[in-house]
Amino acid sequence: MFLHNLxxxxxxxxxxxxxxxxxxxxxxxxxxxxxxxxxxxxNETTKFDTIPVAVTDEAQDQTLRSVLDSLQExxxxxxxxxxxxxxxxxxxxxxxxxxxxxxxxxxxxxxVAESDLRSSILSSFVKExxxxxxxxxxxxxxxxxxxxxxxxxxxxxxxxxxxxxLSSGNTDYxxxxxxxxxxxxxxxxxxxxxxxxxxxxxxxxxxxxxxxCSPTPKSISLAASLTGSYIVHSICMLxxxxxxxxxxxxxxxxxLGLVYLTALLAGILGVSLGFFVGSVGFLSTSVKIAxxxxxSLILCFLSGLMIANMKVRIESICPWFNRINPAAVIxxxxxxxxxxxxxxxxxxxxxxxAVTALVFDILGILLTRRKKYASL
Length: 376
Hints:
Layout: H1 2-13, H2 17-38, H3 41-45, E1 51-56, H4 62-72, E2 79-83, H5 86-94, E3 101-105, E4 107-111, H6 117-142, H7 147-159, H8 175-187, H9 190-198, H10 206-213, H11 218-247, H12 256-279, H13 285-303, H14 310-317, H15 319-324, H16 326-339, H17 344-369
Parallel strand pairs: 1-2, 1-3
Antiparallel strand pairs: 3-4
């Protein structure tokens, strides 16, 4: 009896237009817009690239050239140096072919067209070079025999520095928009959860009236409806993750299997939320759909779907809300999975989603089973 009911629940779910629109077409459209809008923001504003710079060195300072050559020979070069005279260097700066001009005339000086991250790095380099050059000159004047030791100490200091990445994952903060997109798809699963109560309440649909009169126990009918909704929404979540990862080429880390598992649990949470909302009160179908959609969008807004740092603001004001906001928990799960090597925080998020979904299911079942009708 259960399998018979499950079969027809799956078939009826495929006929719901809301599923096609909100769980498949809308995420594809919104994800494509996100990709177009944010694809180069991180690279242009945060990610470091080699800095093109023009150097005017009429005296041909061999020490300076040796330092600049070493900076260009690194695996990820700091500078891309072009030696030029003053007029040519100024033309390159105006044409935005370089980010700055380093002029060697006793001391280094820097000319930039605008103040940004690259100009700050160039300014730091010039100040550090001038400072060390002055230290060496002072040492030569006071005690020439120690000059070589000072130079050697500078070399040892540089050699002792090595790059230690903070994370092996994707730290592009714009990826949070795609995490929130998946959280939105998961919570929009509340639409399928709503149809469970709509199709099982006699006062909301004709199908619900027929089910209430049928000999099939309500527990079996609800179990089949929940299972069918979980299966349908899980397919939608798997499609969404596949589209984001392979269609939009968003780096979601190396643990793709756990990413899919997270998406499945997030989808179950969304369906359970809709099942609970639909079971509360005797509101009409349209009102329940409006409430469910509004709740999902508000939760996603507070998680950062519309404003990137909204979750950070919430964290500073009332951090407990981020621990219970389903959208924030889902996005944090994807983030921890991608960025952190330790899975402890990810595990907490997964447990939170599982417990929340279970609570919604229990409350929904209790509220639905208590409904009785004087006549049908």
